[in-house]
Amino acid sequence: MRSKNLLLGLAALSTLALACALPACGGDDGTGDLPVEDSAIEGGAETSTDTGVDTGSTDSGTDTTATDSTATDSTATDSTATDSTATDSTAADSTATDSTATDSSATDSATTDSTATDSTATDGGDAGAAKDKAAGDLAAAICNRWKACNDFAFTTRWVDVAACTARHKIELLDRLDAPGTGDTVTSFGTCTTAYPTFSCTELATNDVPTACKPAGTVASAGACSWHSQCASGYCAREGDEPCGVCAAKPVAAASCATFEDCGYGLLCVLDKCVKLGRDGDACDVDGAAGAVKPCGPGFGCVVTGTATTGLCNTPIATGAECDYNEQCDQGNGFYCKAGALATDPSTCQKLAIHTAGGTCDETATIEPAECTGGTSCYLTTGVAGGKCVANGAEGATCNLTETSGGPGCTYPAVCDSTTSKCLLPQAKLCL
Questions:
Q1: SS3 per-residue string spanning 121-167
Q2: Is 124 a residue whose pLDDT tops 90?
Q3: pLDDT digits 0-9 by tens, 75-97
Q4: Taking the model in full, what pTM does it have?
Q5: Is the pLDDT of residue 333 over 80?
Q6: Where are the chain's structural domains?
Q7: C-alpha angle 372-377-380 in degrees, rounded to nearest 5
Q8: CA distance 429 to 181
């Protein structure tokens, strides 16, 4: 027999986050996001611990006193008349030969003001460029590692690394500007360095490198969009909503029926927060006795005889006989496929990946399948099986009701429950 339990293709991982499984998370993936994250996929002004660019200044222009020519004005006509910061009355003083022409004060203090070389003239641009580069580098590191660790999960989430990088960069830039954030240009750099060698096993459990989990300053019950804003390290966001509240991080076996993101290191499976099993960990098949103990990518639940509990170990090989999906390497896209005839044995086979318009939900006559990157599986009332539907960009109409037929939104955009439009999360708007 084949289990009707959830097929753990892990395509829904964001921070990242990242989603979420990501340091991003709060999301994917959806972040929750891969181990993103949300992705894995998944604060306020950047701190002074970044690359040295002064982000505290909002001076949007060049201090015009830097060009105050009174320092060399040989006449008594004080050129501060053109200084946009002050209309010096002496500029129009009829005493054109006012002794102030040679008075040491003629060397307008503005010329020696440190603003003469005001770094704020370029600070805004430099800070913006630093953030843009840091976010882009980290997004690329996340996406490349995800693809290298689990190509099946990546392919069911993203069209390619370039698309993954571009969308995660949007999330990461918002995190840098989020109120109370612990994220900085410097912390992003450290996180980027850690990703290429981060354990694929840990990544599969929706975790991220330690360097990618900074705590923020927002207290419990405070508004948030990302985990990195919260002092607890966890932002509880309900369903696909863009805003949530900081709360204590869920523990294994906690309910995730409302807040589907269990935070780093845990996944929401059948409404429970679980940690995917590794070699030798206890597991079950078909949700035995109401428990939910799935194995992570690279492992299968090895059971003996008619037992429904066992240990995570080497999965049943492709084409070999099986009784449950969990005995196959679900994390890498395998399931227990029924034989063509009732007398034929079931065997572990790779899930098909369908493009927009293809089927994706198992019925009596339709084999289970995943949807390719850029699409999601939705049911439609009265139609057998689900259909892969292209995700919408920000501004597009969306519908996440189970039998609505979709579409969903392209991460990190979320489907706003009030407007039914895809919106990009903006942490500053959650206050």
A1: HHHHHHHHHHHHHHHHHHHHHHHHHHHHHCHHHHHCCCCCHHHHHHH
A2: no
A3: 333 333 333 333 343 333 433 33
A4: 0.72
A5: yes
A6: 277-350
A7: 145
A8: 14
